[in-house]
Description:
- This protein is mostly helical.
- It is about 50% helix and about 10% strand.
- The structure holds iron/sulfur cluster (SF4) (2 copies).
Amino acid sequence: MCxxxxxxxxxxxxxxxxxxxxxxxxxxxGAISMKEGKAEINMENCIxxxxxxxxxxxEAVRHDGERIPIEVKxxxxxxxxxxxxxxxxxxxxxxxxRMKKYFNKEKIVAEKTLEKIKNIMEDKNA
Length: 126
Ligand code: SF4
Ligand code: SF4
């Protein structure tokens, strides 16, 4: 789960970006803009061509996979924060059960999507 769509594939490390603007010029989809001196990707427009990653000399455009531990941490922290709304141990356990169901649903959506993409790839190769 990710709260912020702009964090998804690819994403720009604000710490590494020096704001040179090269990626803004190269992006064929006009998906990158500068915000407060740092590049930012609008994922609604991004066509995932990877050009921004290739062109950045500062390694500021990062691979999505690097966000896995960050997003896991965010999910766990959110779960703990929401759990504070429940007083009794029973309520907390029920809440955790619902969170498990939610993340399991996300997993199934991802698995089924991957299956469909695999089918599309196989159709193309046929
Ligand atoms: S090319 Fe790299 S350093 Fe330059 S603005 Fe884009 S992300 Fe930032
Ligand atoms: S992956 Fe391609 S479309 Fe997406 S932001 Fe980078 S250059 Fe633009």
